[in-house]
Fold this sequence. Notes:
By secondary structure, the chain is an all-alpha fold. The chain has helices spanning 4-24, 34-39, 42-64. The chain has one domain (4-64).
Amino acid sequence: MMEKGRLEAFSDGVFAIIITIMVLDLKIPSHGNWTAIMNDAWMSTFLAYLVSFIITASFWVSHHL
């Protein structure tokens, strides 16, 4: 039977890979000022990433409880 510590370490690695893959999809905004960033499609992508990160982080935290 697998020890609890080994399973937690494996799942931590899986969560780290998931978060890394999610951040690779973020692109650099096309403009340098905040107004252009808010109007650009980059903002919706960033908000989707933020929600996905929060959900993944909540799964990770609940896994360790």
